[in-house]
């Protein structure tokens, strides 16, 4: 017995197919969905993926990544879809963010490996979806490319760089953005460009810092800025964090000292002279070995300065020589 159309849920109601023959052309109209039905389906998708997040957390670490992988695989199908008349991926991108958040801890090696494979698979699928739209046009193509560009931007910004997407993938993503059609939505390209800026600034910041390690002028500017921002009562705490890390840059075994060693000693002397009370308090709480490693080059530098500051003895002529 076939149920009445009115008894079905709103998101299952569709107009019956209809065929029109006019002027020798055959036109077929099928599965046209009302606005109310579109909203209901989007809400249903949101409820389903929200349930996945709740269930994954309830399962605990052992099954969380497997449950997350199932949910992400289902969402990847939404990004791949070309047949649906409703855009289900665009309005639910926030759910993809919820699925990718809270990655496993570094000590959970098996979970980290699963999460990394899942992220790389999803990102590769998004880029492949964009590639397949080359040479095609139409509303569906625009929607699919837009959703996959935004999904890739979301993946690259939500997932920490430690989970290993390669620089090649990022460069490929840049190529896809730059080669996209000029009539694409400018807002999408703006968001993806800002996402790339964030990625490069967080992923390659270490290389940038390393390249300026020997630039004394740059380091002096950074130190001056920090000195202006940190209030006097907070300086013991700040030095308590900085000094143990600064000690790692010292290398007194090399002669002559390396540029980074000399620069580190100059900064330590700057800390000691600008905030002597805070410096004394911070060094007093350090362990013996790092404190000794810190004090030795400082005393040596102060000794060299004292030697250089002594006036040279003027040559004298002894009267006994006459």
Give a structural overview.
The protein is mainly α. It has two domains: 59-207, Serine Threonine Protein Phosphatase 5, Tetratricopeptide repeat, CATH 1.25.40; 215-306, no CATH class. The protein is 64% helix and 3% strand. The chain is built from 13 helices and two strands; from the N terminus they run ββααααααααααααα. The protein has a two-stranded antiparallel sheet. Strand 1 (18-22) and strand 2 form a beta hairpin. The N and C termini lie far apart (138 Å). Residues 176-305 form the LAA1-like C-terminal TPR repeats domain. It holds the Pfam family TPR_LAA1_C. One of its GO terms (cellular component) is membrane. InterPro entries: Laa1/Sip1/HEATR5, TPR_LAA1-like_C.
């Amino acid at each position: 017995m076939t149920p009445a159309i009115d008894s079905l849920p709103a998101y299952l109601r569709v107009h019956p197919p209809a065929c029109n023959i006019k002027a020798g052309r055959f036109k077929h109209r099928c599965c046209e969905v009302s606005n109310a039905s579109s909203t209901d389906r989007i809400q249903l998708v949101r409820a389903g993926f929200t349930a996945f997040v709740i269930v994954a957390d309830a399962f605990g670490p052992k099954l969380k990544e497997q449950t997350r992988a199932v949910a992400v695989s289902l969402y990847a199908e939404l990004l791949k879809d070309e047949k649906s008349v409703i855009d289900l991926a665009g309005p639910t991108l926030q759910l993809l963010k919820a699925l990718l958040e809270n990655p496993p801890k570094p000590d959970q090696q098996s979970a980290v490996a699963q999460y990394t494979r899942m992220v790389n698979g999803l990102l590769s699928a998004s880029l492949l979806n964009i590639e397949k739209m080359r040479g095609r046009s139409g509303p569906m193509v625009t929607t699919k490319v837009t959703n996959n560009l935004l999904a890739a931007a979301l993946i690259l910004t939500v997932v920490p760089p430690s989970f290993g997407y390669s620089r090649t993938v990022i460069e490929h993503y840049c190529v896809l953005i730059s080669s996209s059609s000029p009539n694409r939505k400018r807002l999408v390209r703006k968001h993806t460009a800002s996402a790339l800026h964030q990625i490069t600034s967080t992923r390659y910041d270490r290389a940038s810092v390393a390249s300026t390690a020997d630039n004394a002028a740059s380091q002096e500017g950074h130190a001056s800025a920090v000195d202006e921002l940190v209030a006097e009562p907070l300086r013991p705490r700040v030095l308590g964090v900085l000094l143990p890390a600064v000690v790692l840059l010292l290398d007194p075994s090399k002669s002559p000292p390396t540029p980074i060693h000399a620069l580190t000693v100059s900064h330590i002397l700057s800390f000691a002279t600008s905030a002597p009370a805070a410096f004394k308090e911070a060094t007093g709480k350090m362990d013996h070995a790092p404190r000794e490693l810190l004090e030795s080059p400082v005393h040596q530098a102060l000794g060299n300065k004292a030697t250089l500051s002594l006036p040279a003895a003027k040559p004298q002529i002894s009267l006994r020589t006459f």
